Protein 1
Amino acid sequence: MPGPLSGMKVIELAHIMAGPVAGLMLADMGADVIKVEKTEGGDDTRRFLPPDIHGESAAFMMMNRNKRGIALDLKTSAAREALLRMLTTADVVIENYRHDTMARLGLGYDTLKAINPGLIYCEISGFGRTGPYAERGGFDLIAQGMSGLMSVTGEAPGRPPVKVGPPVTDITAGILAAMGCAAAYARKLQTGEGQRVDTSLFEAGITQTYWQSAITFATGNPPGPMGSAHPLNAPYEAFHTADGWLTLGAANQVNWERMLKVIGAPELNNDPRFASNRQRLENRLALAAMLAPYFEARPTSYWLAELEAAGVPAGPVLSIAEMHRDPQTLARNMVVATEHPVAGRVETIGLPVKFHGTPGGVARPAPVFGQHTREVLAEYGFDDDEIRELCDMGAAIDGTKAMERK
């Protein structure tokens, strides 16, 4: 699919999560993303097994759709020279190695800027490339803890810390990096100049704390975990029903009064403890305890229908599988399928941004290891003899032969 970033050339020197998220976002929006994997087994997510589909890692295929894949041993001078040849005309390079790894490979920013002044050099790390933690490695769990996320996630104060289920700092860092690359690319189209783009898992976690940071800045008191409740609005949380769970967003006064009519408790509107959002927040636990018996008396489907009819925001708590089957998920093309050369039909998550003039989307499955090595090198001017020599010396791997055997 063409997408709004059609024409952007991206070299992805990244592995596992944050860097590949940035690459898939750009690829879904039309960029030509070439994923460079190490020759010793490729991206580590290829070994995140189980689950697999016909031997291909489900995790790898999720993170690397829409990309072309090549395998180079960057410890060899021949592979580095080949990569430098590719980088001379690239618009973006994405890397999420540890501090100074790229420089030690002869691929640092200053080196690449000298050969390609228009290159956008995107770095994703645990804590950023400056500051006292710049040399630390980083993982999502560590970033969630240090960014404050784990201090506000969980059932209640005094309980063990809980991380957000998905690797939210990895995913958010990748999205921030893609946003930064797109912004830098817009600038490049105006001036011809590239620049460094630097973000981190730590900062990605911090950006998730806008409400909690606002409260702390204003009061000096950092909030703690509140389960499913909201620190600024009430009632705004999950309630148990006769057969499951319901999320309720009766946060403003209009929806609060509508909700009381739905459940048949208009008298609560006269209770001074619940007269306004301020009072409802101050008495949130008492409010939840009073509302609970009403919701537990009926099944979720009943409340959803009644609340929707009254115009009160509400929703079910779905499993991941239920979310995949939800009609709105399908209507928004958030579950799509590709045809993988080894795994066959593979479902994946769709592009969450819809462009009505230049639609992006998922058109290509994740690459088999080394699948596009020959194709990509040929595009960059390597002839058959040069490609064969690189593969024979182990500087590159041509995955097409392995595909033929499968």
Note: DSSP finds 18 helices and 14 strands in the chain.
Protein 2
Amino acid sequence: MKDIAEACGVSTATVSKALNNRDDVNPATKERVQEVARQLGYLPNAMARALKTKKTYNIGVLMVDKAQSGLKHRYFASILDSFKVSMERSGYDLTFISNQVGEQTCSYYEHCMYRNVDGVLAACVDFHTPEVQVLLKSNLPVVSIDYMADHSYTVVSDNQDGMRQALAYAFSRGHREIAYIYGEDAQVTEIRKNAFLDTMAAHHCEVRNQFLRQGKYLHTELAYQLTQELLTNCEHRPTCILYPDDICAIAGMAAITDQHLEPGKDISVIGYDGDPILQMLRPSLTTIQQDVDTIGQKAAKLMLKLLRKEQILPEEQTISCPSILLAGETVAQL
């Protein structure tokens, strides 16, 4: 800053005001200072700026799921990418949060304090663990994905309506013997499972005990095994099977094929997520597509409101994003 001041013939205080785009600097002087700064390759010191403004322009990201899929989890990775693009437009960087600093173990909250983040995006985590609850109840602005709780700020995919759409499509194709392989215990799992049971009951469809099986998200081996059991160990075979995600649905289709049956004809299959790559398979997968771009953008908008201490109405604390049915080729017309 001293070099810029000397080159422009002004004080370092004027340089500081010009570089921060303050209004109490002559416009011509401001333009001259900023141009010289560009020529000299000036970049502000982030640590010094943080000490003065009490802001680091750094957002923590917590992504630690039970399956340890991390950024390989397409749903959350796509949301994170959308969130990242939106936050970068406002000058923010992202830092991943863990429970490790160097060789020392710490809590997620302690790591946030160590990295001095301005806020945290919590996605793809077990929200019921004490460590995550401490972070949610801390003084840090936290936006969560797919987790609703009192006094929390969250963006969710409308899983209840997504399940209703999946079943409505199956009903329209004549299916009533429908099995559901659901994911491990989580709020999203509970919402989808309840929606499945309520929708089946509303259409006077019996849910056989053997048709309701707990699997795990993105666990292909278990999805394959449970599909085999539904096809071979049940007194009544389902005509349609719903899966917790598209990856498990593909594993289920492999199990159906290995039983010398044809997915989409002999046994119908419905996935969840709407992975665009898997839509290129044939037969194309019928699935519920979640709007990951909108979820990420809404999460960024909510985060910025929290950081700027803008008023957030109670009805704005939980933002729900609709999903749509992609009617592929894996649900037969009975």
Note: The chain has twelve helices and 14 strands.
Protein 3
Amino acid sequence: MKTLAEFVKQRRKEVNLTQEEFAERAGVALTVVRKIEQGKTNMNLDRVNQVLAMFGHELAPVNSRELQTNK
């Protein structure tokens, strides 16, 4: 399974956008894109979802019990 950082970086490159261009189109600061691609863990979920919306995806909190019952 890909990490969030790998996913965003790969998809951004597939559409031939620099980090700056991507940030502008996603409506977030350049630092948000950089932090995501660097795998930083202290991120604002709303900002992450703004970036992921560019690819039709979203992150949401998941209860650990739900993960165990879905195995």
Note: Residues 27 and 50 are 7 Å apart (CA to CA).
